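Exercise 7b. Backbone tokens:
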């Protein structure tokens, strides 16, 4: 897919599966909400509000869903995990867009592979 196609698909997911507030009812919406919350915290706040009950849980959720060996090869999963490891460094906010955009592309890949409206079980431990 082209960058524009990835962008359009992620925009569709955002508009249709990410609620104005709170967790999404759908996995693809929650994945996109997660990476964008991480981007926002790093860019807007310099990770000043980074915490395990929010950002740590979101990184774990992204890692769980995007480390899918049915969908991604070993090299891609290694890249995803390296990217998420980098975003996990609370004291060093990552303020470039490349990692966030790359994770968004993998979310689109996940959505294409699994389809729309995959139900998400909300995490009662998540506070953001």
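Sequence design result:
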């Amino acid at each position: 897919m082209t960058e524009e196609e990835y962008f359009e698909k992620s925009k569709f997911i955002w508009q249709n599966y990410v609620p104005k507030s709170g967790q999404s009812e759908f996995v693809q919406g929650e994945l996109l909400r997660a990476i964008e919350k991480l981007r926002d915290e790093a860019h807007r706040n310099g990770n000043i509000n980074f915490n395990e009950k929010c950002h740590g849980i979101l990184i774990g959720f992204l890692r769980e869903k995007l480390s899918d060996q049915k969908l991604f090869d070993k090299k891609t999963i290694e890249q995803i995990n390296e990217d998420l490891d980098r975003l996990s460094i609370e004291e060093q906010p990552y303020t470039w867009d490349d990692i966030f955009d790359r994770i968004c592309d993998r979310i689109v890949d996940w959505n294409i592979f699994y389809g729309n409206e995959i139900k998400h079980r909300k995490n009662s431990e998540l506070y953001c």
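Instructor comment: Residues 27-45 form the longest helix (19 residues). The chain has a mean pLDDT of 97.
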